Amino acid sequence: MQRNLEGLKKVSVEILGEEDFVKLLESNEEIKHYIGFEISGLIHLGQGLVTALVIRELQKLGVKTSIYLADWHTWINDKLGGNRELIKKVALEYFAPAMQECLKIVGGNPLELDFILGSDLYHNNDRYWQGVVEVGKNLTVSRVKKSTTIMGREESDEMKFAMLLYPPMQVADIFEMGCKIAHAGTDQRKCHVIAREVATSLKINPLKNKEGEILKPVCIHHALVSGLQAPSEWPLPENIDKKDFIAKYKMSKSIPGSAVFIQDSPEEIREKIKKAFCPEKEIEYNPVLNWVEQIILPTTGKFEIIREERFGGNVTVESIAQLKEKFKNGDIHPVDLKNNIAEALIKLLEPVRKRFADLQSQEIIKSIINLRKGS
RNA sequence: CCGGAGAUGGCGGAGUGGUCAAUCGCACCUGACUGUAAAUCAGGCGCCCUUAGGGCUUCGGAGGUUCAAAUCCUUCUCUCCGGACCA
């Protein structure tokens, strides 16, 4: 079994508590992982495939992986109209199978991926709610308020009191499930940092290794994938932090053109990518290039460009550095990139489309889409 | 509970009795220009009718005044800001 973190590091941006992770691997004890999902709508490539890539790598390390279907959190955050029945239905009939397919696509093993539904975890579970309170006793209100950005809300948005329950609940989830590895996109960082900070103060249900020592959860964060939309200003203004600026343009479910959803039809995929922002020779801020880097290459190991002779003929690249080089000097044109990434994605995602091709699945997907329009 | 402010189209935000289907900005859609997108320019952007034009339904909900209301009145709901209560 693989014992180093190199593969994992390639598909993530940071590991908080890396040394602890190495120790855990060496100790041969069971290591449980989880990533939590709000059942917030359709699954896009970032959520589906990038998550799956990390899970694949964790499985290679012998970690017991799981996905937490956070129906309570979804309810609190008022997604899917706050309709608890629908949330559960979508969780079990769309999210879970979809993530199995995504994991299969990237070469992971869906049979070794557990699913845990929030309602089941909390049902008749005093210890969980004690955990929530105990986490809360270690936090100030302002700290919790600041951390509500993990819910994808703006500070200016109206905040219901229940939203303040969300971060401590998310932290308590980790301890309740006994997950030594907590995994999420970088947007969830604040919550994980809280989890690590309070970990050593917990009395009721702390994380422990097999020697009984109290542990902080190891937190793995993957990068958020760029959205295809154009930035509000281009070229990027000189005087600002480019990284911060770019970070604002992530794939988003609420910005229609920014994301490809995993069950999108070939036509939809082509159309969205055709409309993508993709300046010629630009390698610093280029969402299409970013997709090749974060999705195509880690999944298939190569990126094939099929094009007419007059444009330079076919090329295959195997690293992002190689691709960037060719793109920067104009050997590869944005249209080459777009045409081929679209076809590559169509091919990759075919199993998902098949999985959800039946009438019942289509109904569920439709109901998610209509909800968004309505609310 | 009391006092004040407010609720307008996807969002922001004008409008305070007729000329308002509702200025404007953003977003969005179409076309032109580029081997893509962006930028720029032209047009569209409540719904229906084939255009001129016409019809229908809108300005938090309900009711009312008026020839005529997003605009006035009553009432309800919700939001924000103060204050009161704090055994």
What are the SSEs and their pairings?
Blueprint: H1 6-10, E1 14-16, H2 18-27, E2 33-38, H3 45-60, E3 65-70, H4 71-76, H5 84-106, E4 113-117, H6 118-122, H7 126-137, H8 141-147, H9 161-177, E5 181-185, H10 189-199, E6 207-208, E7 214-215, E8 218-222, H11 242-247, H12 266-274, H13 287-300, E9 303-305, E10 315-317, H14 320-328, H15 334-348, H16 350-355, H17 359-374
Parallel strand pairs: 2-3, 2-5, 3-4, 5-8
Antiparallel strand pairs: 1-8, 6-7, 9-10
The structure holds one RNA strand of 87 nucleotides.
Q: If you had to describe this structure to a student in words, what would you say it looks like?
A:
This protein has two domains: 6-222, 3-Layer(aba) Sandwich (Rossmann fold); 242-260 and 265-348, Tyrosyl-Transfer RNA Synthetase, CATH 1.10.240.10. The strands form three sheets. It has a six-stranded mixed sheet with strand order 1-8-5-2-3-4, sandwiched between helices. A two-stranded antiparallel sheet has the order 6-7. It has helices spanning 6-10, 18-27, 45-60, 71-76, 84-106, 118-122, 126-137, 141-147, 161-177, 189-199, 242-247, 266-274, 287-300, 320-328, 334-348, 350-355, 359-374; strands at 14-16, 33-38, 65-70, 113-117, 181-185, 207-208, 214-215, 218-222, 303-305, 315-317. It starts with 5 loop residues before the first helix and ends with a helix. The protein is built from 17 helices and ten strands. α8 (141-147) crosses α9 (161-177) and α12 packs antiparallel against α15 (334-348). With 375 residues, the protein is of the alpha/beta class. The model has no long low-confidence stretch (mean pLDDT 92). The protein is globular.
